[in-house]
Amino acid sequence: MDLSVLPTLTVLSDYVTIAQLGDNKIVRVVHPKASAAISLHGGHVISFKPEGQEDLIWMSKDAIFDNKAALRGGIPICWPWFGRIAAPAHGFARNSAWALLEHRESDNGVIVSLGLTDNEHTRAIWPHQFKLVLNVEISDALKVTLDVTNTDSTAWQFSGALHTYLNLGDIHQMTVTGMGATYVDSLLNNQACEGGDVLTLTDTIDRVYTAPENEIVLHDNAWNRKLSIQNSGDNSAVLWNPWKEGAESMGDMNNDGYLSMFCIESSLHANSLNEGKELAPGESHQLITHIAVR
After folding, report:
1. How far is 85 from 22, CA to CA, in rounded Å?
2. pLDDT score recorded for residue 71
3. Could you give phi then psi for residue 198, rounded to 5 degrees?
4. Measured between alpha carbons, how far is 294 from 276 in angstroms, rounded to an integer?
5. Residues 76, 89 contacting (CB under 8 angstroms)
6. Which residue of the set 128, 163, 219, 269 is catalytic?
7. CB-based burial label for 168 (10 Å; 0-12, 13-18, 19+)
8. Whole-number mean pLDDT of the chain?
9. Residues 227, 292 contacting (CB under 8 angstroms)
10. 237, 212 contact by CB (below 8 A)
11. Catalytic residue (choose from 44, 128, 265, 269)
12. How many CA atoms lie within 13 A of 217 on its CB side?
């Protein structure tokens, strides 16, 4: 994504501006270490490009920037649930208006903080009080932290994911290691399965890996690089690619998009709302993904 062509609305500092992309307002970061972009609609990272590298984040060429639709690609925030265990699918955070709380910068990079709290709209969907802070740390690597706090008077349960779409040269020349051997296969009626140490793709995949290693590595052989993904605060890693038929079935995904993307998600997975992670009043939890080239 060429961030330089986006019209500037507001200059916040030497490194941070507010830009326009379609109807969406974008926090644009251009720093000597890296460039990045975050949509205020959805609190959604849509680009991270270390200096001298291809973008690590994939966005669909047909993504809809109408300030209403969830964005196809980037790092959608699935919260307060992941999947279709309630409506809307993947929760409401990825369709909500987030506020820019602050930005901090140094020679090492930029930190952008966004916030979302409960309001009349969210309480109509999910009747609880909460505070979310999304910290996006942009330097040689990208670190995204979703900080979840229960501001209610009673406990509640949640699940979620940082649904990262990674950008790669060619899905046919990609392998993945570190995802672990055990997984639940969504394409086989959530059957428990066991796989090997190295993953290659020839068809669609939708799996919840239940015992990932501390580091998952995407070997992007077409571009001769390795992407390191280190997640924390999760209980699983979701790996997904819709393949040709899946891409063609989605109106906001270009038909050949599956060839250049792969999702490795930091996930707090649960089979129902009641089985999610419980937070007592005043408690917080952090869901983190750290992505780097190595």
Report:
1. 31
2. 98
3. -125, 130
4. 34
5. no
6. 163
7. buried
8. 97
9. yes
10. yes
11. 265
12. 10
Q: What are phi and psi of 83, to 5 degrees?
A: 90, -155
pTM, full prediction? 0.97
Per residue in 179-203, pLDDT (tens digit) is 999 999 999 999 999 999 999 999 9
Per-residue confidence band for 1, with pLDDT thresholds at 50, 70 and 90: confident
> What residues make up the domain containing 232?
3-293
Whether 215 is a known active-site residue: answer no
SS3 label, residue 156: strand
Residue 204 tokens, joined: 């669609």
Structural domains in the chain (count): 1
- Read off the pLDDT of residues 86-127 as tens digits, 9 standing for 90 and up: 999 999 999 999 999 999 999 999 999 999 999 999 999 999
Q: Which of 165, 162, 164, 161 is CA-nearest to residue 257?
A: 165
CATH number at 215 reads 2.70.98.10
Q: Residue 208 — φ and ψ, nearest 5°?
A: -105, 105
**Residue found under tokens 């300030």:** 67
* 172 catalytic residue (yes or no): no
